[in-house]
Write a structure and sequence with these properties.
The chain is mainly α and about 70 residues long. It has 2 domains: about 1-40, no CATH class; about 40-70. Helix content is about 80%, strand content about 0%. The chain contains 2 helices and no strands. The protein is elongated. The N and C termini lie far apart (about 75 Å).
Length: about 70
């Protein structure tokens, strides 16, 4: 292997290691912020939770606009 190839492979290895470290740091931070939840949600669970929250927020918005006078 040439020196250039070795440097490219070394650079890629460094990027992979940094990516793994960053991912674990972010996962640890998110887990700490979630509080009582010991596990992150799956994509399906997160989508269901987001949908519930959006519907709830929409109902609040509609109720607020129904009680305020029209301009």
């Amino acid at each position: 292997m040439t020196t250039g190839t070795k440097l490219i492979l070394l650079g890629m290895a460094v990027v992979v290691v940094l990516g793994v470290v960053l991912q674990s740091m972010i996962a640890g931070y998110l887990e700490k912020q979630m509080g009582s939840q010991s596990q992150l949600l799956s994509p399906d669970e997160a989508a269901k939770l987001a949908l519930k929250k959006a519907v709830k927020d929409q109902k609040k918005f509609e109720a607020k606009n129904a009680t305020s006078p029209a301009k």
